[in-house]
Amino acid sequence: MVEIKNGSIDDFFASAKESAKEIDEGLKVTPKYTIWMETEDLFNILKPTRTKVIEYLKNKEKVYYSIMLKELGKSPSSLNKDLELLSRYKLIDISKDVNSGHGIKKVIRPLYQNQSLEFRAIV
User: Fold this and answer.
1) CATH number of 108's domain
2) Alpha helices, DSSP H only, in 1-123?
3) What is the pTM of this model?
4) Number of domains composing the chain
5) Tens-place pLDDT, residues 18-73
6) Interhelix angle for 76-88 vs 65-72, to 10°?
7) In the Cβ-directed half-sphere of 63, how many Cα atoms lie within 13 Å?
8) Phi/psi of residue 35, nearest 5 degrees
9) Which of 15, 21, 37, 73 is at a distance of 20 to 30 A from 47, taking alpha carbons?
């Protein structure tokens, strides 16, 4: 499970310090899969249109940008904003594949494939 939390850089370092203390004490450290986000970004990612994109990508290995546009019925500028935010927090990878004789295709790969995502906001 990937946990997505709102918090500052101080929150991130406090969490890392706790893990380091466990290591120093010889305790077994459970791997954490936590992504720290600024509160505004977390609220933005939870908008219904963006959660629709997250759900759409969840069980896919990869999808072409042009197919996403068509299947989600979004405008290019809207989809680009969604993908930029997801990419900034390493939830997706965006690359380009050569489409022989037809140029280049943008490919989106979810990095949370087949994992549950838990969003946690503390205000």
Assistant:
1) 1.10.10.10
2) 9-24, 39-45, 48-57, 65-72, 76-88
3) 0.77
4) 1
5) 888 888 988 888 777 788 888 888 889 889 999 999 999 988 999 999 999 999 99
6) 120
7) 21
8) -115, 125
9) 15
Amino acid identity, position 24 = D
Answer yes or no: are the C-beta atoms of 45 and 26 closer than 8 Å: no
User: Which single residue is written with the structure tokens 């709102």?
Assistant: 6
CA–CA distance, 63 with 67 (Å, rounded to integer): 7
Residue with tokens 């977390």: 42
| Amino acid type, 5 | K
Strand, helix or coil for residue 109: strand
Count of residues in the chain? 123
Q: Rounded to the nearest 10 degrees, what angle do helices 65-72 and 48-57 cross at?
A: 130
3 state SS of 58: coil
- The answer to whether 52 touches 79, Cβ cutoff 8 Å, is no
**Structural domain of residue 49, as residue ranges?**
2-120
